[in-house]
Amino acid sequence: MKKIIEDSDYAEISYDPDLKMGKIAWKRKTLTDEYRHAFTTLLEFSKTHQIDNFLSDIRNQGVVAPENRKWFENEMLPKAIDAGLKRAGSVFDGNVFKKYYMNMIIKVSNKFGMPLKLFTTEEEAIDWFNSFE
């Protein structure tokens, strides 16, 4: 049963205890503080709830600023892995800018040995998460 952690005009942050999955469903292009707030909110939540899987639905996210991507790679991803994150997935629409953004993040996640995959539907991502159980 999904639990809504926070719902704003730019993102819905939720948790599924059955899948041990934290999720951010982006609703629009975000400002720097909004982008970072969504991830740090989920990281804080992970201090009291086990998050093995992370799903980001970026179909409505818009282009992510390079400084936010670098912040995610250098600060957020290492902290999430230290907190117990085992794998991540992203649902996206194939947009060329988002593909570039995701390919950069995939390269960094590979350095940490954490699998990150792209999907066209949330169901595909959940099937992949379930394959590890």
Short description:
This protein has 133 residues and is α/β, with parallel strands linked by helices. It has helices at 32-45, 66-82, 96-111, 122-130, and strands at residues 3-7, 11-16, 21-26, 53-57, 87-91, 116-119. It has one domain (3-117): 2-Layer Sandwich (Transcription Regulator spoIIAA).
SSE order and pairing:
Elements: E1 3-7, E2 11-16, E3 21-26, H1 32-45, E4 53-57, H2 66-82, E5 87-91, H3 96-111, E6 116-119, H4 122-130
Parallel strand pairs: 3-4, 4-5, 5-6
Antiparallel strand pairs: 1-2, 2-3
Report on this model:
With 133 residues, this protein is α/β, with parallel strands linked by helices. The chain has a single domain (3-117), classed as Transcription Regulator spoIIAA. Helix content is 42%, strand content 23%. It contains 4 helices and 6 strands; from the N terminus they run E-E-E-H-E-H-E-H-E-H. It has helices at 32-45, 66-82, 96-111, 122-130; strands spanning 3-7, 11-16, 21-26, 53-57, 87-91, 116-119. It has a 6-stranded mixed sheet, sandwiched between helices. Helix 1 (32-45) packs parallel to helix 2 (66-82) and helix 2 (66-82) runs parallel beside helix 3. It is globular, with a radius of gyration of 13 Å. It starts with a strand and ends with a helix. The relative contact order is 0.15. The model has no long low-confidence stretch (mean pLDDT 93).
